[in-house]
C-alpha cells in the first residue's frame, strides 16, 4: 500500500504519519508539505518523528512540496509520476480556525484545496480509498444535549457556529460528487484534546482552551453539558484501524461516545486537584459572557449580576493587570464555550464494532497523564493567533 497524506505537520496528521509508518503493509507515505525546498520539507517531517523519538525512515516518508492555495496544485500532482503508485489518500490538511477573520482562508483551504486534491484523486489509476478527516461537529447548533448518529449529517439545513464546520460539511458533499461511495472513508473526530500518554502533545489547540479556562476559573458555560473529547493518539489509531478494517459503512465518528464523554465540571475537579493555588471553579450562565466583556472594557453597569462574583473580578485584576489581555482571552474562548454548551455526544458504536477498539477514557481521566504540559501553554500567545 502506498499512501498520500496531507496535513502531516499538523496535530492529527503528525500522529497519523507516525502511526502509519509503523504498519508493515505500507510501503511509502508521500506527504504534501508547505515548504520552499525538499530539504526544508524533510526537516519538517523529521521533526514530526523527533518529538516522541519515533523512528524516521527517509526512504519511506517522502515529501511532496505543495500548498492547497496553489492554483497549479492539481497539475503538479498529476505530473508527479511517483504518485501514480498511490492507492490511498488521507486528507487531513485543513484550516481549523474558528475566528471570523480567517473565514476566507478557511473556505479557500477546506473547499478550494480539497477540490484540487479530488480533481487529481479521481484520475489516479489505482486509487482504492480516499480517507477524509472531517469533523463530527458538522451536525450544527440545532442539535443539543443528545447522542448524535453518523447518518444525521451532512445536513444542509444545519446552522453552523463557525465557517470551519460549514466547510467541513461541504467537504463531505464534494467528495461524494467526485468519487464513488466504495472509495470513500469519511472519519469524523469529535473534539481532539491532548494525548493520553505521558508525553508532550503535538499541538496545544484545544488544550489552549483548557489552559485558559484553568486560569480564568469563573466560566460562563453549563458545567453539566456533555463534552465528547478524545486524545490525538486514540484518533490516529482509530483512523488507521478503520483503514485496515472490514468496514460496513463509509462514515464513522471517532469519538468518546456515551461511555467516554466528560463534562466541564469533571474536568474542573481534575484541574483543581493539580492547580489548587487559584480560586475554585465557578460556572455561571453563558449569557453573562457579554457582561464579562463589558467589564473588561470598563463599561459594566453598576447593577450587573456579575458583581456577585467580585472575588473573581478581583482575582482577574490581580492576575492579568491589563484588562485588554482578559478581553483577548475571552474573545478567543468564545467559540469554544459555544461548542461546550451544545452537549453533543457522538455515537461511536460503528467504530467500536468494526475495529474492535475499546472506548477512549474520558478526558478528565486520560488528561492526568499529561497534565503537566497544560502549565507550559502560553495562553496569551494562543489567543493572539486564533
Ligand atoms: N483538532 C481537532 O480537535 C479536530 C477535531 C475534528 C476534526 N479535525 C480535523 O482534523 C484535521 C486535522 O486537523 P488538525 O487539528 O491536525 O489541524 P492543524 O494542527 O492545524 O494542522 C493542519 C495541517 O494542515 C496543513 N495545512 C493548512 N493549510 C494548508 C495549505 N494551504 N496547504 C497545505 N497544507 C496546509 C498544515 O500545514 P502547515 O504545518 O504548513 O501549516 C498542517 O499540517 C482537519 O481536517 C480537521 O478538520 C480536527
Tell me about this structure.
The radius of gyration is 21 Å and the shape is globular. The mean pLDDT is 95. Helix 4 links the parallel strand 4 and strand 5. Helix 4 runs parallel beside helix 5 (163-178). The strands form 5 sheets. Strands 3-2-1-4-5-7-12 form a 7-stranded parallel β-sheet, sandwiched between helices. Strands 6-15 form a two-stranded parallel ribbon. The protein has a two-stranded parallel sheet with strand order 8-11. The longest helix has 19 residues, at 103-121. It has 386 residues and is an alpha/beta fold. The chain has a domain at 2-189: NAD(P)-binding Rossmann-like Domain (Rossmann fold, 3-Layer(aba) Sandwich), CATH 3.40.50. It is built from 15 helices and 15 strands. Bound molecules: NADP nicotinamide-adenine-dinucleotide phosphate. NADP nicotinamide-adenine-dinucleotide phosphate (NAP) binds at residues 7-13, 34, 67-69, 92-96, 109, 113, 133, 135, 168, 189, 191-192, 203, 205-206.
